[in-house]
Amino acid sequence: MPFREILNRLMTPGERVLWEACLARSACEYRKGEDMVREGEHPRVLHVVLSGWVQKYKQLPYGRRQILAIYMPGQLCDLDLFTVERSDHSLAAVRAASVAEISRSDACSLLRRCPNIPQIFCWSELVAAAVQREWMISLGQRNALERVAHLLCEIYVRQRGVPDPGDGECDFFLTQWQIAEATGLTQVHVNRTVQELRRRCGVELGQLRLRVPHFAELAAIAAFSPNYLHFGEAGAGVDRVAPLFETSDMPMFAGLPSERDRASPLQLLS
Amino acid sequence: MPFREILNRLMTPGERVLWEACLARSACEYRKGEDMVREGEHPRVLHVVLSGWVQKYKQLPYGRRQILAIYMPGQLCDLDLFTVERSDHSLAAVRAASVAEISRSDACSLLRRCPNIPQIFCWSELVAAAVQREWMISLGQRNALERVAHLLCEIYVRQRGVPDPGDGECDFFLTQWQIAEATGLTQVHVNRTVQELRRRCGVELGQLRLRVPHFAELAAIAAFSPNYLHFGEAGAGVDRVAPLFETSDMPMFAGLPSERDRASPLQLLS
DNA sequence: ATCCAGCGTTAACATGGGTCAAGGACGCGC
DNA sequence: GCGCGTCCTTGACCCATGTTAACGCTGGAT
User: What is the pTM of this model?
Assistant: First the structure.
């Protein structure tokens, strides 16, 4: 269950129409590497990936940069930026990407009309935060082989879902240099590592495509466990989260005056 | 302006009484290293640090662990856990710590009665997420000296605020082994690094206390810039965020039916 | 057809930080 | 006062990863 499916599952058909219309209306095209938000700017719009991938990154004195997150179609990139005066990071297209830029007023009217939308936002942020924590584990504790293997596993599972329906392929838009920036390694060493993975479990990392003939082997190298993606819960989320907060069991919404509207799960964001 | 001051600034006196009462009522004591939430558990309460520090961490196969975040008095540790079925990380005391454990129903009634509380939650989460991104930079891009220096700068500024009123001291509850777990280094190498910092800029890392006689020098080594802590904004936050969302300018709340109550800034969390 | 930029590949060499092992200082319980 | 555990310190050694510098392939622009 890739991210898009979760989106669809969480929305009513009517909401989906509104949502898609809003996205389509504000779609923008970016070229590879082009910035959408730059560190220090005051952010004015909310970015939602339509196609391609988007990277959140920080630039460091003298050239190096760290990629902090990768956003895939359907994901919200920068919900936090609405509360913040100056962004502390940048946002750019990984390759050519299409991105919806929702203005504050559009976001406002969406929220007014679609009670399930906040829930979407909630899951999006929740998963993004969990992924970020897992990246910290890679950066701090895993060696090069494990880091790259883990990143490939994550990207594969985020697109294909788990359990995997199976032909072992998915989109892959990062260059080896970008893998290096995400994993805190050198481009040269990423190259060595990718070759090792090719040798050990037949991973193919080609033009825009990742092939993983034996996912289990790759996952074993990375000690990859998809729990942190909270996928199973997102599936259940529609049924579980929504009723819960109608019955005033969820602390943040219960007691808020908006109960009849079922707005607000967003308040639970991490 | 350390975190506690921000808390006070954001609350009305009446709210502060309720808040403090709620914290006091549910206070728990933990010994050094004792777990409050363990990975895989279903989280039932919200943890707020009263005194001492709290660490969020993940345990890895064979012994190593990564500290993901450090929470100081006043901070909320795990707002996200309310939405999640099973926690993907653990929470433990750094040293002996006192922690309030707010039940869902208590959190609920707090939110009902204190319109500014969600705002507090919002800032807490926002800053926590920004700190986490900065830690990724350390783990991915900085060398040992820069990592440790940066951590010391952050801990100093988070307690003392910036600009610093000045005598160059603050609490410091981490052992060198815990610094190692937070920075992705070895305890042995942290020791070497701390000595280097002692030599280079007179940093003293003693029993429960950190002394930084020349903060500027330490900050220079780390290339430390406190922007990511969003401190200035938190000061302004009371005046700016609140009116903004009353005038329906903030997308997430504007249009929500609860406007007369001024609930909901939490919706903007990242 | 030619050029060029971007990307992947390779090799020789350098080094930051890990590993292992031992010892010392301090504080705490008995 | 003794013993023990926790934390800090030190030294010798070594490996994973960084550095530098080529080279070649490919695809797009002219």
Answer: 0.87
